[in-house]
Design a protein that fits this description.
Shape: flat
Number of domains: 1
Radius of gyration: 16 Å
Strand content: under 5%
Largest sheet: none
Order of helices and strands: HHHH
Length: 86
């Protein structure tokens, strides 16, 4: 991973925990416009954030639980995705 990509990946992650400075936001936007790998990372981390937020809110209300079969299927798909990228 390039040094610039490493910095951007940290900023993308940080953006979910704090508001980035205007300079950091510009730096991220410029880098993402040029780097498809970081764009993909940003999209993936955004999807994961949305999923975990949904699960957290569902758990708080007690309205939604995944069945064991669904949990197993998700784990299997994630494992296959990781294996494919290795």
């Amino acid at each position: 991973m390039k040094k610039g990509c490493d910095k951007i990946s940290h900023l993308v992650s940080d953006a979910f925990d704090r508001k980035l400075s205007w300079l950091e936001r510009i730096e991220v936007k410029i880098h993402l416009s040029m780097c498809s790998l970081c764009r993909s990372y940003a999209n993936n981390i955004g999807v994961m954030h949305d999923i975990f937020s949904y699960i957290r809110h569902s758990d708080e209300s007690g309205s939604t639980r995944l069945s064991q079969a669904s949990k197993h299927k998700i784990k299997q798909i994630l494992k296959e995705e990781c294996d494919d990228k290795s």
